[in-house]
TrEMBL record:
Start and end residues of each DUF6535 domain: 45-222
Domain of life, source organism: Eukaryota
Name of the molecule in the record: DUF6535 domain-containing protein
One Pfam family from the record: DUF6535
Keywords: Membrane, Transmembrane, Transmembrane helix
Compositional bias of kind Basic and acidic residues: 32-42
Region: Disordered, residue numbers: 1-47
Membrane spanning stretches: 67-86, 143-166, 194-219, 231-253
Amino acid sequence: MSSTNQAFGNNGRGDSDPSPAQTRKSMGLDDPYEHAPPKPDGDPWSILLKPKLETDKIQCDAWKDEVQNLLIFAGLFSAVVTAFVIESYKFLKPDPNDTIIRLLSQIANGPNATSTSPLSAGSSTTIQAASFAPVPSSVRINVFWFLSLILSLTTVLVGTIALQWLREHQSYPIFSPKESLAILHMRTQSLKAWYVPQIFAGLPLLLQGALILFLAGLIDFTLPLGAKVAAPVALTVGLILLFLFCTTISPAFQPLLLLSGRFSRASVPTP
């Protein structure tokens, strides 16, 4: 028994067994750099910059595609609205053909009309032009369509400027990887500070507002043509606006419905 205690000591461990410190030292665990990961090849700043540039490129490409599609639609839409405006603005001023017809009628009425001096004829024409007042529906139609054209052209202007911002944002001509990383961080923070993502998100809203104004003016334009023309146009426009409301505005009410318990837990899909 005494020999056993001498062999294992007070704690029952043999004297020949190494201590934990000796074990760590023999395995090289005391050296923090013994099992460190290998140093990557190349410039560390380039390795750090590459994934950030890829993420930024994905976001900028998405913005570019969206803006370019909006520019195409806004250009075509502006051309359509301009064609309607060219015809509708004529209703806001007197028609010179009506004045000519009126003068010819006065001449054809008899010798009293032919003896009228050019001065008096010009005075009567001026009075008739001054007393001209456009129909209220014509005023409303032109207001709708002019505002629609302005919003559409504003979308084109802001979209073009935004594409220039993105082009300058992604340019790193002669900078080192370290400087490019710092500039990328600065430009990313500047985009957020100047609400550039919100500007890109607002471009479709401008174009949608222009479309709504144009459709409203189109309904007002067809009202004098009778119910057979105005009713189908109004019904079609109503369905379009209903679809626009359901797909654009109604998702904003989803959090309220979730908070009110409208959707049960069973109806919410789970992974």
